[in-house]
Amino acid sequence: MLQCIFLLSDSGEVMLEKQLTGQRVDRSICAWFWEHTISQGDFPKLQPVIASPTHYLFQILREGITFLACTQVEMPPLMAIEFLCRVADVLSDYLGGLNEDLIKDNFVIVYELLDEMIDNGFPLTTEPNILREMIAPPNIVNKMLSVVTGNSSNMSDTLPGATSSCIPWRTADPKYANNEVYVDLVEEMDAIVNRDGVLVKCEIYGEVQVNSHLSGVPDLTLSFANPSILDDVRFHPCVRFRPWESQQILSFVPPDGQFKLMSYRVRKLKSSPIYVKPQLTSDAGTCRVSVLVGIRNDPRKTIDSITVQFQLPPCILSADLTSNYGTVNILANKTCSWSIGRIPKDKAPAMSGTLVLETGLERLHVFPTFQVGFRIMGVALSGLQIDKLDLKNLPKPPYKGFRALTRAGEFEVRS
User: Which of 9, 154, 164, 258 has the largest CB neighbor count within 10 A?
Assistant: First the structure.
């Protein structure tokens, strides 16, 4: 049972406080959490479950916003973390993103959503379809009406029909002139390349995203050509578990609109689509930098949005870096960003230059880690392939579409 939820900005300010039970949680717990966070150093990798002297704390970080939940009683940690993730997803969907200004401008809607999503510390209504029928998303018309009438509430006067349905994730009896369903495979590649250029870790985190606009109550079956490669699968509540357990197929009645059907991992991949080769040599108070980028395994699709970033060490006074392709920028926080875009066919992109060390330091002792970004449309690098999508309970065959996208996740190259 959760007792309180706080939303903290990236500076530690409490933007929103929601007490969930009669036993109030003092705000001083946020100060303790922030001091603990600063002492840990690497905030994005902070543990999601923390035991304070008085409470158990659960936290997730989304777009610089920390969602912090507190309780004094033992409870399943995964339930608290999953609920916070669902709150973040719903707020991002409602507000069109997540940042400090959006939450402060729409705090009434945020409070109304939390009132419906959790009751006396226990999760209640978390399905976006039902919440949209109960609480209207913010728009210009609603804001103008609230100014004119003085009524800032977006709550509906009627209870959604789906609340009493055996399919609570689906809007009651939707109707469309053109029935269509789209399935996207969206994958992120996490990789670590050591200083010798050896790929020590490479895995895919993927999601099957569905955008469904189907009338009535359709029954869908999605199968893969090679489901045995999947690990750590997670399903939307609409998925029937027995068909997957016995036949490795997804059988479900979809929510209306866009939703994440499942997520998965594919581990121990042998190669990455591009290579980044940094070389750093340091002596006499300077450090010479040379970075090469190229295609290692051609996925037969265009690799674009290629970027290479690294944090300049604190001991660097100045940097002079240029490239033969793309643009190099050094940001205010001493981050060097090299934007390449697409790799040309006639030459390999290269960046080189010199870093000047602070006075009295002969050599660089802390070498940076390079963060690589890229995007490949039309291919799933995990090798996962959709076999077929069957639909039942529809008066006529709908339009079906399939797409794939792979992008870089935490892709690190050590130097």
Answer: 154
Q: Per-residue pLDDT for 147 more than 70?
A: no
Contact at 8 Å (CB) between 270 and 297?
no
Mean pLDDT of 306-319: 90
pLDDT of 374-397, one tens digit each?
999 999 999 999 999 999 988 788
Q: Which value, to the nearest 10 degrees, does the dihedral of the CA atoms of residues 29, 32, 34, 35 take?
A: 170
Look-up: residue for tokens 């053109």?
178
Distance CA 304, CA 302 (A): 6
Average pLDDT for the chain = 87
Give the strand pairing for 249-252 and 219-224.
Answer: antiparallel
Residue 255's CB is within 10 A of a number of other CB atoms, namely 24
End-to-end CA distance of the chain: 46
DSSP 299: -
- Cα–Cα distance for residue pair 391/351, rounded to 1 Å: 52
User: Contact 71/1 with Cβ under 8 angstroms?
Assistant: yes
CB atoms under 10 Å from CB of 272, counted, come to 20
| pLDDT at residue 152 tops 60 | no
Q: Checking DSSP bridges between strand 219-224 and strand 199-213, what pairing results, if any?
A: unpaired
Closest CA to 279 of 345, 364, 373: 364
User: What 3-state class would DSSP assign to 355?
Assistant: strand
Closest among 97, 96, 94 to 113, alpha carbons compared: 94
Distance separating alpha carbons of residues 127 and 204, to the nearest angstrom: 27
pLDDT of residue 163: 54
In angstroms, rounded to a whole number, what is the distance separating the alpha carbons of residues 415 and 406? Answer: 25
Are 340 and 263 a contacting pair, CB within 8 Å? no
Q: Structure tokens of 23?
A: 């036993």
Q: How far is the C-alpha of 76 from the C-alpha of 104, rounded, in Å?
A: 31
pLDDT, tens digit (0-9, with 9 covering 90-100), for 212-221? 999 988 999 9
Angstrom distance (rounded) from CA 74 to CA 71 = 8
> For 91-103, b where at least 16 C-beta lie within 10 A, e where not — what string?
bbbbbeebbbebb
pLDDT (tens digit per residue) in 75-87: 999 999 999 999 9
